[in-house]
Amino acid sequence: MFKNRKLRIVLANIIAYVPTNILRCSLYKTLFGYDIRNSIIGWKTVIVVDSAKLDSCRIGRNNRFTGPFRFVMEANASIDKSNVFECGWWVIEPQHASTVYSRSLLLKENSLITSHHYFDLAGTIEIGTNTWIAGLQSQFWTHGAGSTKTTVLIGDDCYIGSASRFAPGSVIGNRCLVAMSSTITKNFSTDECVIAGTPASIKKENYYWRHAKSQTKSS
């Protein structure tokens, strides 16, 4: 397993263009030591992280995972195409030793990330079971000027609409809907609600988006 950062980046970019999934997974396991089981890694997807554990999951084409963070995808989790997951290498430099950056990404079972989203992994991002990061161009930030919180936590069975923004320390409860273009800046631990606006607030309680979809179809 190679330790040199520049060499790892070069190797990962070569592996990304290998024509078959079996070979890509085999090379990532052999050369990088990643734990990959029954998973798909799409063409032109680059993974250069501290550790990766992929269990019966799918990553589509042209995604980038770069930086010194831990990456876990649980069973049946799925990432579509052209997303960026990155942690700047600066977090492990000596001048930042006084700040603890947790540097991890967890996608729980059956979670879904669609396309063209951005995830900052200086801190921790957790996406709950059955949760959808839908649409395009949402951003998830775990560090920033003056911010002492370094996590973004999204509960189970949530729906995150297009072009949403998550600030460090953001929390979403379970079975929540975050409306398109919302800006999440704080802890919303209430379950089954609609969150919307800039900055976001709770617009409706006792609302479960999956039930609302089924009611609309049957009406």
From TrEMBL:
Keywords: Transferase. InterPro entries: Hexapep, Hexapeptide_acetyltransf, Trimer_LpxA-like_sf. It comes from the Bacteria. GO terms for cellular component: cytosol. Transmembrane segments: none annotated. One of its GO terms (molecular function) is O-acyltransferase activity. Belongs to the transferase hexapeptide repeat family. This is Acyltransferase. It comes from Pseudoalteromonas xiamenensis. The lineage of its organism: Bacteria, Pseudomonadati, Pseudomonadota, Gammaproteobacteria, Alteromonadales.
